[in-house]
Request: fold
Amino acid sequence: MSLLKRSLAVRLALLIAVGAGLVLLAVLSFSHISLSRLFVRQVHQRGDALTRSAVNLIESRMGRAEATIREAAAAFALLSEGRNRAQELICSTLENHTDLCGMTIAMAPVGASPSDSRMYSGWRKDADISLKQDHLPENNYQQDWFYLPYYLQRPVWTEPYYDDKTDALMVTYAVPVLRHGQMWAVVTGDISLEWIRHMLNDLPLGPGGQAILLSRRGRYISHPVRDLEMRETVFSLAESLAKPEARTSLVDIGHRMLEGQPGQLSYRRPFDDQPAFLHYRTVPSSGWVLGVVIPEQQIHTSTLRLNRINGLVGLVGMSLLLLAALGLGWSVTRPLKKLAKAADRLAQGDFDAPLPAIRSHDEVGCLNASFRRMRVDLQRYISELTTTTAAKEKIASELAIARDIQLGIVPKLFPPFPNRSDLDLHAMLIPAREVGGDFYDFALLDENHLYIAIGDVSGKGVPASLLMAVGKTLLKSVMQTVRDPARALCQVNDELAEDNDSCMFITGFCGMLNLRTGDLLYANAGHNPPLLLGGGHDAQILEAPPGPALGALPGSCYASCSRRLANDDMLLLYTDGVTEAMDPDQKLFGEARLLQIARTREEVAARSLVEAVEHAVRLHAAGAEQSDDITLLAVRYRIDPGQVLVAGKGDTDPPCAVLTLLNRLQELPRLTSWVEKQAQACGLSSRAAMNLNLALEEWVVNIISYGYGDDHEHAINVRLWADSQKLQIEVEDDGLPFDPTAQGAVDTDAALEHRQIGGLGIHFIRKTMNGFSYRRENDRNIVTLSLQMHESRSKGDEGPC
Reply:
């Protein structure tokens, strides 16, 4: 009693749970179990009665047909002039027995002359009867309707079939006719099975119920799915099922139905896997099997309907009990309403709102005491939160300023060199937090040298951003002085490693690109190697000897590497924020995906490539929080094809003219025009210019015709250097390896019929050029032709070209 008075929850639970829940659950459970059993018994009784009545109806109709054909056969056997009166018998039988659709009398293949009619047929067509004679029915003797009764010497029902004349499902009853103990003829009658379909469709099977009729071989005579009729057996249908257990179940059902005994079973239908009851019975005369399928869902539906009625009655009883509970609860809810009004005022910030005076010690009294304590705690918490929020807003403002300062450190005006056609450069930096530790940098050290760099500071936040600013500034300053990436990294490493108490470090890549020659000098300090793409080759990783991160180990040394970039080559520098970007399943973006994107966009502008990679990373992340800074820098190197080779006195670097051709013969006029222009600028004699033009054309044609094993476009780069002493041309291609200087000399003194085919082009180059050499570098063929200027210059021209 003490607990009942002190606990509101106990009082309400006892009134509702004991008074309504137990009664309602008991009634519904008992009703469900008893009704389910009752409906199962009724389903079995109904299924057995339906199969029995349907089988009796089929047997009665087929029995009448059997009797009619037997009488006709007996009458035909007594006719003295059977052959002459066969058609009269057929016609009279069809007129008197409307169940028959057709009738045939086939004479035995012995005892008749070839001129005698051996088969007489008649069939019903609308209200008329058509007759036919067949003198040569040999093919019909192989049919079941003649073959089986002839050799078994007893009446038989054939398998159902579709009749061509009536376009209906038919079955034939055949009776042998004997005279003097010898087979004399076979009399048959055809009946339509359409009435069976209608009869089965009219059976009261309820929702989802089905009726099927199998032949004695298991073929579907009638089935709700018309496409299965006379096309499938129960066993072939089982073989088409995907699930092994469904195939096994259907085969077992087929064997049990064809055993000849009536029965019933529960199974799961193979097409929808729903439980059902199957009742089956054999038609005695034909051996067919009739099956009736009633889904268990009918039982569940009926049971559910009655349970709903019972549940509704239970709800009425619960409502009456709830009225009593409401009367009891009214005495409890009044102080709760007062407490709710006070809580609303507290929520609006009125901490002086009075709370109701509740003296009870039940849950309502405890709740009132909790509200009093909460009011005091809220006042203290709001005061502390106001102070903390002001401090966080100040920090956030300072971080936003720091972010703007950090992003202002890296170049962000693009294109950075709008007046230069030999450069296409774009970069992007997206910090993961307010400030980050990644950086990129680039600058023209002079008119012909471009400095590029990218770096990633260990850690994140403000410490990383400070070290990033120091490292970027140091590296650029040192590179402007030493102009050697390896030496620059060594000096920056020593500066950062000194007094590095925080043990932070920077991974970085530093390079210097000669814009006149395409030579790239670079070094790597533990950073992701860049990608090299374009220029007629597949996207690849620009490998370099590994070096330690900057600031990690004082006294570390770094090695410089060099690579000559072809015209239109592009470098893509990136940080691990790209390759290690994760999706919600913690899967990395990866270098393989980055390479794939680069390969599909080798020909696009630097800005488009950077934006494409950033977009792919965003798609991969799929909304996941960015875990690291994302930094990208792309630079494409181009050689101006319009520059003309003109050397100035005192130049230390020889001037260069470049032409890029595609591996198409249609490009040869461009080559001829370009050579003539350069020869004129260098003052070559007309004979030397013609020889140079023919030699270049001969070698370029050889590359286009035999250098490639595919139909893709490839770039052929032609470079020309000259000074006052010598003119030199390099032809570079990415075709199959071929060394022309290793070819044997051509015997020009031999008779034409004894000369070896080919080689005259190489022979011409050797004879007309002062120098002819070959080398293979970076999977590319490079052939060098040279002319001595004093032998090739026009008269009166004394200076260098």
About this structure: The domain at 410-637 is CATH 3.60.40.10 (Phosphatase 2c; domain 1). The chain has a mean pLDDT of 81. The longest helix spans residues 8-78. The CA atoms of residues 479 and 488 lie 6 Å apart.
